[in-house]
């Protein structure tokens, strides 16, 4: 066939076409020929390295296609004879020709590329110009090919050949204008190009140059149609934003760093959410879910799926195709799909030890089972599951994750990281050193910054990569329902490191003259507060820092915070040891001894020398309330220490008995002294919890239980009774 076509000149073609007596016969011939050519182009007869035969076939086909295109213009363009399917076949053939692998010269060596261009020219450009001319010939029939031809034309414009792009991108404006003239908008065109652009860029099409050309050409075209200028401008901004995110996503698709892939995936799904493209939004939600499951980030996978459930109602309406995930093709009602997703999410949350969230979803399901579908068997199973989760909260130890601030500085980073700071949530027992090593392995050419302050413009504008990493402390945001109530420590501890959006980094600084005998008088704290875009944990293990603020903490305020932290440590450890008899005794021994034995750390005696003096009161009369808070904290440390030492005495064995006796002796000397100076504090039992009030206004736990004569002190610690 190729040999015969290569022998035919224009006269032969004309003669052959005239042999068809009826236009229907000619149309059938052209349609079948176009389908045959398309099939041969897509499935080469010859091996891919037989370049001479392939290029010869392309040259022959190109001439035949252009000749048949003239026939179409002559015989099948008028209203009576216009045939949509014939023209559709032509456009699809032409685009298949232009996008075939054997014509993508950019993939060849320079020698091979120059050889092909010298002998055959760039056939992509030739047929691209022909497609453009054929499109403009369509006139009033253009609307028949919108949105069907948007995808093929897009695929053609993405071919990396500048002149071809310049010639064919204006077709998009013509499509927009055509649809707008017909319907008053170009919504169909916009939807189709967004859908196809996602597919094409992920497959390797498009680049920065294309994005710039797309923007400049369409805006230039819009100047000729003032009534469309604003709409086109909005559309260009939309497509440019999508292209930026798609190019970022494609750049990291095969990256070893799953973190970068997750970040780009979230950028895309947020973009699709903002422009109300549900189908694409859900598609990327499930890509994010899969990435998290690969890393065993079960909590984050659960939060990603929860975003899908928010698009569904508890109703018996059929699910629309765009809200169905790709792995669930069966016809389902919204209620069925939502229930299935809830079950999956609860399983993920259970694996992630986020039982509080799992219980919330269980309660929502239970309401449906009890009040809507009256399935008491499922309700029974649900309530048993809830009971198990409540038991897990109280009995299973959940290690607090560390949080790390990570700054990516320098122009060497991709745009979604460049000169930005993120707060990362560490995994269980993950140390900063391990986290930092893993982080640096993702950017082997990066330089580690050993400072915690903001770097200067020389670092930010450098072409290199600089990474800053340090540990930050989450700031507790107490749940309203827990305030002013005696809440067990296991429950409070969860909220200290979950549902957090603010984080502190504290750096000690010296101000004024330094007392060599008492460093506390000049120990100020410079505290930076970071606020993230969303609470952690979330759909990612990290979120960008949106605001940073700095404050200075005085030596007295620093002393108060230190005492609060110490008291909380004692309380937490007592509760851990009462709940688990198998824990080793050493950590409790070291904590208690470090406080009661002045030879070890000096206890709070240095606070007394620094702040509880007449001279300090004269110089700082405004600190009276803070001094009372510090005294109250010191007083309440005594019953905490007493409870801890009693517990230690029950656990201590053999060689450690002398150590315990020494600690007990120190406590006996310390207790009367503190009670004489700061008053006696006693544990007050309430139901199953023992409350120890401490001063109000603390920056940590802010739930209060006024008690006995210390009613002015607002916050309560909770010392749990021994297990059983």
Automatic annotation (TrEMBL):
Membrane-spanning parts: none
Stored InterPro entries: DOCK, DOCK_C_lobe_A, DOCK_C_lobe_C, DOCKER_dom, DOCKER_Lobe_A, DOCKER_Lobe_B, DOCKER_Lobe_C, TPR_DOCK
All residue ranges annotated as the DOCKER domain in the record: 272-683
Pfam families for this protein: DHR-2_Lobe_A (PF06920), DHR-2_Lobe_B (PF20422), DHR-2_Lobe_C (PF20421), TPR_DOCK (PF23554)
Keywords annotated in UniProt: Guanine-nucleotide releasing factor
PROSITE patterns: DOCKER
Sequence similarity: Belongs to the DOCK family.
Protein's UniProt name: DOCK2 protein
Lineage of the species this protein comes from: Eukaryota, Metazoa, Chordata, Craniata, Vertebrata
